Each structure stands twice: as C-alpha cells, then as structure tokens.
Amino acid sequence: MNWYSLLYLAQQTWPYLAAAGLVGLVVGWRSFSPPEP
Amino acid sequence: MTNLALMADTALLVLMAYLAGCVLGYAARRILHAGSGTRRVTAPVAPAAPPKPVRSAAARLAATVDEPLPAPTPRPRVPDPRPLLLEGPRGGKADNLRQIKGIGPKIESSLHDLGIFHLDQIAGWSPANIGWIDGKLAFKGRITRERWVEQARALTNTKIVA
Fold first, then answer.
1. For residue B52, is it within any domain?
2. B95 in the same domain as B152
3. What's the domain range around B110?
4. Can you give the pLDDT at residue B161?
5. Has residue B68 been placed in a domain?
6. Residue B129 lies in a domain
7. Inter-chain touch B13–A13, beta carbons under 8 Å
C-alpha cells in the first residue's frame, strides 16, 4: 500500500471519511470545557 | 486477503479523519472561547453623564453648605454563586457522597477537591450554586437531572428555609 493507492482509497471512501471527521469534530468540540471566568 | 488489507486501510483512514476532527473541534472551541474571554474582560463604555447645570460660584458654595451629603446609594448585591466550600472535612471525616445516586468515586473526588465533603453542603445548594458547580466541574446538568440536592436533603433531613 503506497500513498497513491491510499489517495485513491480516500477518493473512493470520502463520504465515510467526512462523516468520521464530522463526528470527531463534534466530540472534540464537546470535550473542551471552558474554564471558570 | 487483499480485501482485508483494503478494509484495514479504510479503517485507518476513517480513524485518521475522526482524530483530525477531534483535534479541529477542540481547537476551534478553544480559540472561540479565548475570543469570548477577551471580549468579556473589556469593560463596557459607560454612558456619558448628563451635563451639569452651570451655577455661579456663590450658588455652588451655598449648595455645599446647605445641602446634606447625598446618602450613598447601596450597590445592588450580586449573590455569590459559590456554595459553601470547606478547606477540609469537618471533624476530619467526610460524608460518603456516593450515597447520592449519580455520584461515583471520580465525581466524589472532584467534589472533595472543590471543598465539598458533606451531604448538608449539597443539601444547601441554591440554583445559582448548582450552576456554578455544574460549570466548574462540567457536569452538564447532571446535578439537576439526577436530583442531587433533593437526594442530599432526604439523606440529611435538612430543612432549608426558602
């Protein structure tokens, strides 16, 4: 598995990757607790 | 076998996308929060005072002699959202806060770190106190949802005069 085939795979599976990124975005957003002012 | 390798690579890509999203989300909120913090520190510009009527020197002098000093206006008292916090448990022994459903060892430890050791402390929390603790320990509404205060009151039979 080289970079080209990985890139090809990413092109084929981009909706899943986008969904995973979105889920990660939400999880990361919620994991930050703002400090007490 | 190739199919398995393909699946593994796909899973790896998905994992990488998830982790990148996590980092981005965390960083974005942190940056946004830092911005809002800066805005909060900035004091609002006070409205311009109305122009004072021009009076003669004699009138001003008479006014200073005759007029009693204006009573100091009491400043509106903002209730302190902090609940009763202790340096250490009374009598050196803390209550078992895990008697309250919803409090586990981790939360109990966090409460101890904050200065909450006894059930009667929790029983005396006001809504403002709950909000403060909720924000401080990032409980996200658990205190109200799991009715900690009611549970603590039931456990201590403390009568809180509203």
1. no
2. yes
3. 90-156
4. 47
5. no
6. yes
7. yes
Q: Which two tokens stand for residue B81?
A: 């959202």
Whether the predicted pLDDT of B159 surpasses 50 = no
Instruction: Pick the residue from chain B with its C-alpha nearest to A30.
Output: B26
What domain count does chain B have?
2
A31 to A11, B86, B111, B162: CA distances (angstroms): 30, 29, 20, 36
Q: Specify whether the CB–CB gap between B7 and A13 falls below 8 A.
A: no
Q: How confident is the model at residue A6 (pLDDT cuts 50, 70, 90)?
A: confident
* Cα B110-B114-B116 angle, rounded to 5 deg: 90
Number of neighbouring beta carbons within 10 Å of residue B40: 9
pTM of the model: 0.41
A-B contacts (CB, under 8 Å): 82
CA separation for the pair A36, A34 (Å, rounded): 7
Is residue B148 classed as helix, strand or coil in its secondary structure?
helix
Residue B45: pLDDT band with limits 50, 70, 90: low
Q: Estimate to the nearest angstrom the gap between the alpha carbon of A28 and the chain centroid.
A: 10
Measured between alpha carbons, how far is B119 from B97 in angstroms, rounded to an integer? 6
Is residue B80 included in any domain, yes or no? no
